Amino acid sequence: MDIELTAPYSPSQNRVAEHMNRTLVELARAMLQASDLPEFLWEPAVAHAVYIRNRAYTSAIKDQTPYQGWYGNKPNVTHLREFGAPIWILLQGQTKGRKIMPKSQPRAYVGNEDTSKSVLYYNAQTKRILTLCNYVFLNVKQQDPPEDIIITQTPFARRGVRRNRRARGTVSTKA
After folding, report:
1. Helix (H, G, I), strand (E, B) or coil at 116
2. Domains of the chain by residue range
3. What is the DSSP secondary structure assignment for residue 130, as one 8-state letter?
């Protein structure tokens, strides 16, 4: 095995790796901008982008995902959610409020744990990323846009306008 060194700051020497790094950074940038989360969450955004890319089909491997190539079975993608999606976490232990107070609080989803069924979420109050397995995503249905409202004038409305004009003395001579 030979070790080949590359010149610093010369990405052209490893085109494939640099292309993947650029793709992942652009995905992370788009996810951060779409979710309005702070810039310092770039690391979980890149990790989430890698998690998704490993479970998506690529042209380099025919008819399978990188996950399938490594583990030999199809990945389960039912748990995937949008980066920064609202997630409701159950308050437990020391953070649990009084009896009448809410038992859960909304946070921002930032990724999955690989080894367990836990999720990573961002707490904006403490500016920390935490892990929890007691959570729920609320899927809010998109409402259909309202139909166009057409406003028409009725004959009664026109008469009312003319009467008001006559009272003010601005009616034309046509009757």
Report:
1. coil
2. 11-136
3. E
pLDDT in tens, 143-153: 666 677 666 66
Alpha helix segments (H runs only) across 4-136 = 15-35, 42-53, 66-71
Cα–Cα distance between 87 and 105 in angstroms, integer? 8
Measure the CA–CA gap between 116 and 160, rounded to whole angstroms. Answer: 72
pLDDT digits (tens, 9 = 90+) for 50-102: 988 888 888 778 888 888 888 888 888 888 888 999 999 888 776 666 777 77
Cα torsion through 157, 158, 159, 162, rounded to 10: 120
Q: Are 68 and 74 in contact (CB under 8 A)?
A: yes
Question: Beta-carbon neighbour count of residue 151 at 10 Å?
Answer: 4
Cα 50 to Cα 46: distance, rounded to the nearest angstrom = 6
Contacts of 110 (CB under 8 A, 6+ apart): 37, 41, 44, 45, 48, 83, 84, 120, 121, 122, 129
Q: What is the CB neighbour count within 10 angstroms for residue 21? A: 13
Neighbours of 42 (CB within 10 A): 15
